[in-house]
Amino acid sequence: MNRLRLIPLDDAVVLPGMPVTLPVDVGNDDRVLLVPRHETTYANVGVVAEVSERMRLAGRGLAVVLMGLHRATLGRASADQDGVLRVDCEDHPDQSPPPSVTRELEREYFAVVDEILELRGDDGRIRAFVRSITDAGALADTAGYSPDLDFDRKLKLLETLDVLERLKLALQFQQERLAELQVRKRIRDDVEDGAQKQQREYFLRRQMDAIRKELGESDGSIVDEYREKIGAAGMPDAVREQAERELDRLERMGESNAESSMIRTYLDWLLAVPWAKRSEDHLDPVHARGVLDADHEGLEDVKRRITEYLAVRKLRTDRGMADNRRSGVILTLIGPPGTGKTSIGESIARATGRQFVRMSLGGVRDEAEIRGHRRTYIGALPGRLVRALRDAGTMNPVIMLDEVDKIGADWRGDPSAALLEVLDPAQNHAFRDHYLDVELDLSHVLFVATANVAETIPAALFDRMEVIRFDGYTTEEKVAIARGHLWPRQVERNGLRLEEVTVPDDVLRLIVTDYTREAGVRQLERELGTLLRKTATTIASAAQTPPLTIDAAAVKDALGRPKFFHEAAVRTAVPGVATGLAVTGVGGDVLFVEAASMPGKGLLLTGQLGDVMKESARIALTYVKSHAAELGIDERELEGRELHVHVPAGATPKDGPSAGITMVTAIASLLTGRPVKSTIGMTGEVTLQGRVLPIGGLKQKVLAAHAAGLSEVIVPERNEPDLDDVPSDVRDHMRFHIVESVDQVLRLALEAPDLAMVA
Fold this sequence. Notes:
Elements: E1 2-10, E2 19-22, E3 31-38, E4 41-42, E5 45-56, E6 62-79, E7 85-92, H1 99-120, H2 125-131, H3 136-141, H4 151-159, H5 163-215, H6 222-232, H7 237-253, H8 260-272, H9 285-295, H10 300-318, E8 330-334, H11 341-352, E9 356-360, H12 368-371, H13 384-392, E10 398-402, H14 415-422, E11 431-432, E12 439-440, E13 446-451, H15 459-462, E14 466-469, H16 475-493, E15 501-502, H17 505-515, H18 522-540, E16 548-549, H19 552-559, H20 568-571, E17 577-584, E18 587-599, E19 602-606, H21 611-626, H22 628-631, H23 635-638, E20 641-646, H24 660-672, E21 680-682, E22 685-686, E23 692-693, H25 698-707, E24 712-716, H26 728-733, E25 735-739, H27 742-749, H28 753-758
Helix pairs in contact: 1-2, 1-5, 6-7, 7-8, 9-10, 9-11, 16-17, 16-18, 18-19, 21-24, 24-27
């Protein structure tokens, strides 16, 4: 145990074998103990150092040169009589393990140090010094010479007394240091490579400019090209200023900058918008009506509205009136599938001489699809409206917003809310796409939206639309469509010629009535395609030679047995069944309501009925019970009887109040024993007082009744004006009964009592 003068080292570590000069006076001591200190905390291990030289500094100060000898652990410390702090210490000279134990660690340590020195650019002297050390403990202590090693690591190295553990620790520190140096070198090399590449590109570009000047050619600068394009694009002043600001940024940063490609993409999109291009409208209402009539049968409301639009534009243009931004047209065509809503858009474009672009909105859930992404996002693009204008090449195309009722909404936004500005003629002259961030004038665009149902369109959006209803085609209209459009198209698609196969109108009518029952003509076209494929097979196999005429037998052979029947007479042959009329998502339809009674109590309802329809059934039963005497029903028969009301097609959900009078009729028919007339259909809401209230979709219901072979329809009085919408050829073949009360309905619908007894 030695007692040595203690010399603290503030945030510094001296290791054995390391010389150090300190500005201290050690008196006559030949050895001292150097102990690292952090703030007021001393280390547990110090280094015994020998004084190798004493010197006097300028200003009469003293200094000593010390050489670290070996480690020592600290014991009790106290001041001597001269006030010098001394400490008891126990020496711990290195006990080197056998070379066989440390050889592999030493070899790896040398390899790591060599790589570090190579990265630092050592001239070989430090490498030679390290290689000359043969003692494992001294070799480990060389790690403490590194200026990159912090105080805590050097202290940990000092406090590790076991040589083998110290060598492992030193190797770990050197490996971490090597990894850090390698990362620094890679970053530095990447930066230098990028700078050299930019410098090389700069000099090459300057040389190219000089060569072009010598040859008398234009310098071909990208910036100049953009400047010329912007000048010729006919942009509004605000848009041109925005484009020039972006172009100035591009010119300042140069093409090699990473952001330059984003600016060039933005400028390309600005230039893609046809700012100054407009199609010349064909403002001839007579020509437009001729085009629409040639392309579509029926659809009088649509044709009339387009003709009116062109007539107004023609008058305003001829009379030099200023264009009113509020005069934009947003037509919304609502109706069942297959009625020609989408194809009418192309006809409108052809009739007006405009370009046509279709935007399918079904399933769109991201607002950015309409307004575009902001430029802060990688891969940002403008919205569909900007792309539609680019595709059209004009600022006044016909843009069809297809399936607008099927737009979704989630955490990405509500696209229907973005359409509020687009479809408002008072606002869409200043529509702002998020990507372009400039105002776009959409007031000259003719928007045509399509939808199957109006209920799923948001109210605010629906309020901005001019709605035209598509209620389906009559049988004769379907025959005309098949003759003029569907048949020629399917003949060509199936590899045939019109002169090779013919079909009479009565056969087309047979297909319409017995094999399709839809508001549109999509299924009709499929059936015609099936028929013609069968015919093509017959001709290709040489079973028959053209020309061929399709008859009813050929239809049955190709399409099978009829799929639809006029079954009202069969269904209503017994009391308790009434024929109602309904509207579904695919048009009008005939609805049978059946009633039966059995021992029990109460009312049983089946057929997947909604709440409103269930309430209608309860109201119907209440009315019949309260007017039993008037209807000739024995009230005693109602006691102890359960009434069952069923609406067939039980797999299909049904709801709505318009089956009210049908349910009253079915119940009254059952309890009076008087069947319902087989030729009559009915629709109307009923009240407890027996009033018949108006309903919706009358045109579609009448068309369905006509297709089902009914010849009479009971209609609420307040729906009488709606009969004007029914095609004249249907009105001529049907008889309409206008009613105000249920007693009128029952007098018209039920067979006479004497006939019921005969039946």
